[in-house]
Amino acid sequence: MSTVTREIVTRDNLRVISRTRSLAYGITLMSLGLLEILWYGSADSKLHTTIQFGYNTSTIWPVIANVWRVVLVLAGLAIIALTLRAKTLPRFSGLGRFLDAVRGARNIVLVVGGYLVLWPLVLWLGVNHGGALRTMTVDVSLTGYLFGVVSIGVGGLMAWKRFDRRASGILYGGLLLFLLGFLIWVARGSLDLQLTSILASAVAVSTFLMMGSLSGTLCERSGVVNIAIEGQFISGALASIVFASALKGSGVSLTFALVLAGCFGAFFGWILAIMALRYGANQIIVGVVIVAFCTAMSQFLTTQVLDTHQNLNGSYGLPVWAIPGLSHIPLVGPVLFDQNVLVFIAFAAVIIANFALFRTRWGLRVRSVGEKPIASETVGINVVRVRYGAVILGGFIAGVGGAGFTLGPGSPFTYGMTAGYGYIALAIMIFGRWRPYGALMASLLFGFTIALSANLNLYLSQLVIPQQFITALPYVITIAVVSGLVGRIRPPASDGVPFQRR
User: Domain 197-482, what architecture?
Assistant: First the structure.
């Protein structure tokens, strides 16, 4: 009996897959651009949309004297120049090595330099007005044509040049541009577009999607398919709010509630690991059974316990942290640096997981047992033990993400509140190509669509399509991702394949 071994990853086949994906992404962007021109560009030329950037008074650009404005501009330009030329200047070779060693450091430094340049410029342009940021009024039709032309141009360049590494980021930007154009088109007329508020809610909603997709990434990188994320969400959400309510949210009860939520997720991850690794059970079936069990138990506990003892199902939310200085940055500050604690935990988890997977010995072992477990076993790696650890850790992360449904917004538990987001997290994992940073970007995209549907109540009278269609948008994108419409995406070679020692 012959066995079929999946293609193992090499630099050459990754490059072929990336170029094929870039072609698919380019065609997708060109299609979106054409739709933007035909849809948004067909609006009446007299219609305009007013965009409000101010979220609260803390988002005003701090006013400084002209001398300091010049100093900031020069400092920002110097940072940008040194960052771009760090590799070519010998005396700054240490800086170049640092920027190359820390993933994303170059982009972060460039953003900081750009901000130092942008801050004085917008002050000279008079952005601050009456204690708030000025609003921007845009022509709906002209904006639609502009977005459409940009999307078609960038999409055509992607299809022609076949970018290897930047394709995913460009696609995310194009999709967000399309959704922004939709918002501008919907808010046309008398109602203002509260852009900063929508973006802030999108990041908050993305929390459990980040944690769920990160859980799936860790599990599948080790070769185990974790379909049970939805069940881990349910158990984490229920356990965290019951524990916090029992202690009335006092002291460090919220911290212990997060840990307890993670422990419940880790418990179901342990069950999945035992059934899949020790007994060789079908991983998909085991995951579905776990989800069914958690769903049924949550319904039973909600109707028989929480409805009777409502003191165990209160509204206790995690504290909101406003990072000094960073939270005052207009538009960006309230969105990224003025959120509840779980948002910062999710971002930190993504950064740590990416470093652990691609910069540590443990991460190398996890990826090796997910690609070629037999070869890993021959060099002394305990494949089963590594997979156990990855699956249990992934379950813990998913359980903490489940607390984002209750402790994040400070809402009581209701049956069905997870709404299948555990399965969407798996699609995000695929969309992000089994990489933590890719999952982060895809989570923000999906979170924006969820926040978009939640904020459309203000514009119901101007919608020509039912709001339910917008609510279904994350699920439509999920179907498109898993069906391969965004291009060929290669999973780990031994993903879902049972391992047996020979």
Answer: Orthogonal Bundle (1.10)
